Amino acid sequence: MRVYSLFLFSLLLLLLTVRPARAQMDTAVYHLTIRQEQVSKAGKTMQGMTVNGGIPGPTIRFKEGGYAVIYVKNEMNVETSVHWHGLLVPNFYDGVPYLNTPPIRPGQELKYEFPLKQAGTYWYHSHTLLQEQSGVYGSIVIEPKHERLTYDKELVLVLSDWTNQQPKNVLRYLKRGTEWYNIAKGTATPLNRVIARGAFGAQLNFWKQRMEGFGIADVYYNAFLVNGQPVQEYPDFKPGERVRLRIINGGTSTQFWLTFGGEDPLLVAADGQDVVPVKHNKTFIAIAETYDFLVTIPASGKLEFRAMAQDGSGTASAFLGTGPVLAAPVLPRPDKIALMQQMAKMDMRMGAPALKFRPHHVDPEQMKANWGMQMGKKGKDGKMGGMNMGTDKPMAGKEMGGMNMGGNDQKAGMRMNDQPAPPKPAMAGMPMDGMKMPADTAHAGMKMGADKPMAGMAMGGMNMFAEYNYDYLRSVQKTAYADTVPVREILLNLTGNMKRYIWSMNGVPLSSADEIPIRGNQITRITYNNLTMMHHPMHLHGHFFRVINENGDYSPLKHTVNVPPMKQVTIEVLGNESGDWFLHCHVLYHLMSGMGRVVSYNTPRDPRMQGYPKSTLVHETNRYYTWGLLGVASHMGNLNLVSSNIRNQFNLSVENGWNRNMESEATYERYLYDYFRVFGGVNVENARQQQPAPLTEPGAGGRMVSKTTTTAVVGVRFLTPYLFSLDARIDNQLRPRLSLGRAIMVMPRLLVSGYYEYQADFGWVNKLDNNRRFAKEVVWRSGAEYLLSRNFSLMGSYDSRFGGGGGLNLRF
Predict the structure, then answer these.
(1) pTM of the prediction?
(2) What whole-number distance in Å separates Cα of residue 248 and Cα of residue 243?
(3) pLDDT tens digits, 628-653
(4) Which of 364-378, 574-588, 703-717 has the weakest average pLDDT?
(5) Burial of 365 (0-12, 13-18, 19+ CB in 10 A)
(6) Pairing between strand 625-633 and 803-811?
């Protein structure tokens, strides 16, 4: 018995001391728990989503060449997921629910495990609906096998945006197409300000192209955060210490400008990949990008790091050290009216459709030729208006090295024997002297640090967005692929419709799009051509790609690339994976409105994904959103309800005058194109009319009677140039009707509107009174509305049916 016990003890000891081969790879194990909790980030307690009790979630750290094991438990009452942004992981663990990873259902736990093929700064976030906006995100740090940089300490800074609205209500509000978010941010451009700036001609140009004005950011945020707070203090850093700042833009729809107090920081890595160090103070960080900087804590005072939202609507700051503040340069708010004037001078065609009539018969090259500014086309000032931002150059430097990103070392196969030259002095990483900073893209002619003119500010072409290029990023090693690798070209025009908030590629939203094929051992060269006024940070899961810039063979590797308005950017990706991967805009509300594609190697699907159809992910971007307006006034009441997805819309309107006139209508619309839809429905009118006086009572007025008419209607609705809503219809009594309406914001918060309707009756069905051959009915109204808040407004109007009065509108 003693021998048997001794044998069992020895066996147990052996099992405890002998580690599996995988564990010898320096395995790191983490447990992440996602919960719904009450949080307060901007003065209001509301339900958010936390990771291990915090927003953001904890930083998880690994070592290059090691092995990650991460257990994610869902303690919420809805599904969730986690995507490891920028990590080269097996397809099954990428974390896009229904595409390549199962969703984590309530009460379930999912184990992720993968080898760590890279080093650098990355992050993780939910890829389920809008959960990232609610707080499901955190940072990842992978320490390199061999550190090439010297520094004393490091600090992870996660930037994000916070709204006190539920994210689904934010998207619903965007879908209804109002100006409230711009009003709340102070970035609206009402007509009185446009006229005062002499920009009415530019405004007409935008209206002609069905655009209200120059757009920068979509959403009003109550706060911008760094590591979960608007302001953070880090007093433990000592004077003279060199600190590596690992900066992650975990925003949902906010890009930031980064500035630093004290000496100019040294930019050393982008998206986790080392770059040739360059001093770079004013840096644009798009959503989902990461940048690493080296800063030195000043001898006296604390250094400020400041992140300003791109549209200037708010900031977040972190202070390193103690003592007096060495303030970061304060950047002025972009001048949207000046930007609109500059765009109007370029004589380009804006407003490319987000919704093509035939989604499976699209010619991207023809779309590119029809919209935007063409190479060699002259603007109104006579200067050439090319689309080149420095990233569109034909493949400069085709000396290739055969890079294999799929191996255990992500840099395997890249040429290591050539040392890169330092960045050119004229690049965007010029040193800056103290507070001498360029204002923004609108402020042409201002100087950078060494009194050099701001690059690319000549307004004859598209150089107004030159500050957004990547020419200051140069890889520390060659990234070019071998000449023998076949190349396939793909053009993706980025398209959108701000009125209906639909975003797409080549005019086709995700729900109607074909998959993009990608082949192993083949270079896929993707050109993103942005035909919208918004920035689009485009992310390809599971791969790094070359962003082609002026550095040729040393063009940087990234996982996310920003595409500025009316510009194009070219990337190259080597096919070295299998399965299906997601490619999408990382403005979360753009993704959830259709700006995404599935990139497929056309390999067998993982059998573990059985029961999780891809169509679930695709159709999440084509949900119905419902909104309404209730108005109560002294002369009438009205109710409008709308429920809409990308191509279908249901409408109900009821107008009831206190004079007992009433009209209601229910219609179904089908969008054939961005601005054109067909509809059918039922219209009910009740009108009080005075009957003729009896012959026995000459001079007396006839009695008032009510007449109710119910008709079926069909027709078309069209958003015309200059943003007039046109309705052309005919009813079952063969009476044609034409109506036209328009609303304009003339002052901050104040909108004026007008509507005119003309209906003709030729007696084709009903016999007209007094044997007439023609009768007409005209309805018109005019009004004004003053917005008190997102949901309430004061209104006054006159309607030819109901008379005049004033009251209150409620939006819901």
Answers:
(1) 0.86
(2) 16
(3) 999 999 999 999 999 999 999 999 99
(4) 364-378
(5) exposed
(6) antiparallel
